[in-house]
Amino acid sequence: MLIRKSNAIPSSEITPKSVYLNRRAFMAGAAALGVAGMLEPHRAAAEATKLQTVNSPLSTPGLTPTSYKDITSYNNFYEFGVEKDNPSHNAGKMKTRPWKVTVDGLVKQKKTVTIEELLSFKPIEERVYRHRCVEAWSMVIPWAGFSLSELINWAEPLPKAKYVQFLSYEDSAIMPGLFQINLNWPYSEGLRMDEAMHPLTLLTFGLYGEMLPNQDGAPVRVVIPWKYGFKSAKSIVKIHFTSDQPPTAWNDMAPREYGFYSNVNPNVDHPRWSQKTERRIGASLFQQRQATLMFNGYGDQVASLYNGMDLKKYF
Amino acid sequence: MDKRAIVGLKVAVWLACLAPLAKLGYHGFTNNLGPDPTATVTHATGFATLRLLVISLAITPLRRLSPRLSWFVRFRRLLGLFAFFYGCLHLLTWLWLYSGFSVAAMADDLAKRRYIMAGMAAWVLLLPLAATSTNWSIRTLGGKRWQALHRLAYVSAILGVIHYWWIVKSGVRTPITITLVLAVLLLSRVVWWLRQSDG
């Protein structure tokens, strides 16, 4: 149901949370709820966590999304602790309203935009993407957002701008992880401008038709589906345009292990483990392992960005 | 310590040692091993191995604190053998869940990844210790030689801790607790030997 190409019913109205928890129940219940959703168009608006989404041709067809429960309880969000279940326990303390994002650096004019302005900036699309962690596990996530290129065009970067840097929120009072691991905080990530402008690069506000839970990077994050998950910065407060490659958190910490590009690539091992296969989250013990796809399966769309580059060198 | 108390305690130690396996089995049957069951099983067996090995190394320093604690030693073999048992299960997760019993995948891992080498070496060192854990072995080898052989447990535990540090992400400090505990246990032996040689 989530991957329908064209349908006027916003997915936010046909997939209540309890239903996500079980794919089978979801499949059985969606049809009936879809009718209810059309009859009660105001119900979703009444709930602040719901997002009105439209379907997108850039959504990946044929995938079964990972359960809402796993997507929201198995997280790497190191600010809130290094264990997978830490963010879902600790991130609730983060206040995501009011929230502003500053756009600065090599732009025509420095701008600040509120989360409310961002949410109403463009139609929010539902994009089902594969999500591959550098730790060799993967999920399928129905994100909600619009292409980052829309915001970049609005930001009017100067011709000198060659890279985009994302800076995440930092607050030592509520983030125990800042003391558990000595990354250069605040968390910084970055993309080359052509990567950032690629239509698949998603400025993301929600998942499963709802606002992002804090542990998944609320209220706004980026998602770059052909790169390892750590490239997709969470809880963004600043978008900074530069002429030089910006410093990025994991690359600074261990450049041998985490490249600036970090495209999903089964042919380039992490120094400490193979990237040829991955463990699909939510699958049973003996059915977890599956082959990892080049560019996480998005090669047709993105391989041309890297023409002529040695991907073993620029991993 | 009278005999009945020892038997009671042994039952308790058996149950405690079997608890990690029972927990995994229960969660496995109820389909509740978490989002990443491979990681759950791997971490649980690895932690059990390392913790039991370190606990077994705590017996000697503790009983040296007082002659009244000498009965502690009766639990050392049990703890050591359970450490080996969980070490075997941990190894099996790598053979099965990570490598799919593919010899090529395992050879690749072993050659390229130092944390695999360290872990494998730690397990291999436990083999002769498990094999010579019987009273008959102690008698046959003679106490001194048996004791010298079983000092390999120190090396195995150190390799186990190194294995742990090498698999966590750079900058993550979670292995610090077990490292400090092991360091204290090994240092206490050094202090003991120095005092003995002084006397």
Shape of chain A: globular
Largest sheet geometry of chain B? none
Distance between the termini of chain B: 30 Å
Classify the fold: give the CATH topology of chain A. Sulfite Oxidase, Chain A, domain 2
Low-confidence stretches of chain B: none
Give me the strand/helix succession of chain A. HHHHEHHEEHEEHEHEHEEEEHEEH
Helical stretch tally of chain B? 9
Give the C-alpha Rg of chain A: 19 Å
Strand content of chain B: under 5%
What would you call the shape of chain B?
Answer: globular
Please explain how this structure is put together.
The complex is a heterodimer of chains A (315) and B (199). In chain A, the strands form 2 sheets. In chain A, strands 1, 4, 5, 8, 9, 10, 12 and 13 form an 8-stranded mixed sheet that branches. In chain A, strands 3-2-11-6-7 form a 5-stranded mixed sheet. The two termini of chain A are 36 Å apart. Chain A has 12 helices and 13 strands. The longest helix of chain A has 17 residues, at 23-39. Chain A has helices spanning 11-14, 17-20, 23-39, 41-46, 68-73, 86-90, 115-119, 148-155, 177-180, 193-197, 249-253, 299-302; strands at residues 53-55, 100-105, 111-114, 124-132, 137-147, 163-168, 188-192, 202-207, 210-211, 221-223, 236-242, 277-280, 289-291. Chain B has one domain (3-198). Chain B has helices spanning 3-29, 37-63, 76-98, 103-112, 114-131, 135-141, 143-150, 152-167, 176-198. Chain B is globular, with a radius of gyration of 18 Å. In chain B, 25% of the residues are buried.
